[in-house]
């Protein structure tokens, strides 16, 4: 990572401001003043600035139990962003690995590690996501079979990939899908003449929403949860 970016990341100041403090000779590495903003900061570099020492940049990983009426966006728009309530320092660079609709609740993964989130969001990786779904109408008897074979969504060229439906009652089910098309779960139930009235994400890959997390609460992922994304 470049030194100017490193300073922004750790202190929250802008890139322009970081370049200014560098020019002023306020940043040192092993007691040596570094003025070059493109100086490469490695895993073992320690930077001193403003009387504080900053260690290596470690990627961050969080799970959030998303509330309804919050937006999977990094900025507040029509609804508040899921990040605004988390009260994290340096939210710049954080992004959401697989968005949920405004009215959908449950598991949201947040990170600043793009390669890690790619394992979750890339269609090629076929990462399974499990949803709890409440329906307006009793589920059709052949729904399991139809979702396994794939259904035709409006304005899509191909059928949906095989999905696993677990019937809890006739109006409450779990659905596991490997894709992440726009409104996919709602559109899939629409394709079999039903309607989703409530949607909650329970699991992404091997990461399950922590039952200890109340609505709107979050925690850092464990090492095991982080590493699970790479194990296929
Ligand atoms: N599918 C939907 O329809 N909505 C979501 O929020 C997630 C999956």
Describe the structure concisely for a colleague.
With 232 residues, the chain is of the alpha+beta class. The chain has two domains: 3-54, Roll (Structural Genomics Hypothetical 15.5 Kd Protein In mrcA-pckA Intergenic Region, Chain A), CATH 3.10.290.10; 61-230, Pseudouridine synthase (2-Layer Sandwich).
Question: How would you describe what is shown here?
Answer:
It is a single chain. The protein is α+β, with helices and mostly antiparallel strands. The protein has two domains: 3-54, Structural Genomics Hypothetical 15.5 Kd Protein In mrcA-pckA Intergenic Region, Chain A (Roll); 61-230, Pseudouridine synthase. Helix content is 20%, strand content 25%. Strands 5, 6, 7, 8, 9, 10, 11, 12 and 13 form a nine-stranded mixed beta sheet that branches. A hairpin with a 2-residue loop joins strand 3 (47-49) and strand 4. Helix 1 packs across helix 2 (15-23). The radius of gyration is 22 Å and the shape is elongated. Bound molecules: uracil. Uracil (URA) binds at residues 100-101, 104, 183-186, 199. Residues 100-101, 104, 183-186, 199 line the site of uracil.
